[in-house]
Design brief:
By secondary structure, the chain is an alpha/beta fold. It contains 17 helices and 15 strands. The strands form four sheets. A six-stranded mixed sheet has the order 10-11-12-13-15-14, with helices on both faces.
Length: about 475
Amino acid sequence: MTLERFRDVDGFLEKAGEVSERLRKLIDEDKPFLILCHNDADGLSSGAIASVMLLRENARFVTRSVKSIEGVLESLKDLPEEYSVILTDIGSGYLDELSSLGRKEPIIILDHHEPLGSASENVIQLNPHDYGINGADEISGAGVTYLAAKALNEENVRLSPIAVIGALGDLQDRADGRRLHGLNELIVGDAVENGLMKVEEDLLFYGRSYKPLHVALASTTNPFIVGISGNEAHAYSLLTSIGIRVKEDDRWRVLSELSEDEKKALYNGIMKYLASLGLPPSIAKELIGKVYELVREEPWTYLRDAREFASLLNACGKTGNEWLGIAIAMGSRGGLLDEAQRVLEEYRRKMAEAMEYAMKEENRQELNSVLVIDGGNIIDDRLISSVASMLASTGVQGEDKVLVALTQSEDSIKVSARAPKKLVDAGLNLGKVLSKAAQLVGGRGGGHDVAAGANIPKTKKALFLLEIDRIISEEVQGLEKR
């Protein structure tokens, strides 16, 4: 898919230039800034890009990460009027609420979620949806922030790899061959042309260049391979049953050392394994794709592969270590990187436990158009979106149902939903569905056509599930009649 598909790419890039001019004016006036970013990999990437952008201009700023729009509103409640606000990877779904704040200095939104409501004159938005560009998979929040930063100062082209990391963290590599497309291609081009990134096709095992082969296979969770992901012993057994040598003398082999014939045998073996479980062998296709390699990072770290970098940021954001993720994305290494790697390993352990719980039949509920995964109070609310993505990668919901995963947070129920490609291609917009269903029960929701989330009152879970099932059933029936 190429850029010609879009209705107004030039208009979007011109708007990025206009936003950068407004930023330049505020910087020249020595205005202080508050940067608020979402707490996932894309959000932390976005926050890091905005932070480096302002740091390069010697501007005064504070950066914070938030879980939801409630965190944004709380942060702005007592913010001194002289502060300008930059929202990255959050904000577009709540234009009415942000506009009603009536702040003196501007609120600048750099987001890729579908806009809802109307922006006042003082709420300045750069959003791809306003120009016919699908923010769900063609550009991320980090990509939007990067284009504004690049328009402000060409030196910020050095941040292009961080924008690629944000896109991969938001699982935007959904084009044929597990690659980024759309405006993301433009950003990848910037990174490659400036000697910051190399792109090649390979098996997408986690730790492909430095982890023992069986460990790399067990560490791979996108797609999630039932019985293998999170289980090194089973991964070892599968490899040996296929006839892949895991050791060379006394040294563990890594994926990058395998011959092309061995890689083909491994791929075919995984397909047969999936078929033996009654799972679609097509899941294995998700294991082949473009590898985005950050050539200036050390080969033996989690930062060399952009997908692994994204996983590290996601782990930081989902464990209350957002500051650590932002610092790493801004360029900090040394002891902070060691700490981030420890956070990642602990996060992976918790995710393995969460997935084991989520895969149990007794924690599922099947409605007309929805498959519900109920995490109760067992799955951490900060992990539920990652659990939803991993479950969706297994195809557990089929082609005709929406996956809805939910769990209890401190004061509400956190919901994360994923729609199958078939329904999205037919016209289903999950972000709008969750917004409507959440509003009906006194909550908030929104997101993309393929992935969305919501927060609802604790006492409204049953009603919410009935409403979302009803709305999706009606939407699907309407799509079938077109």
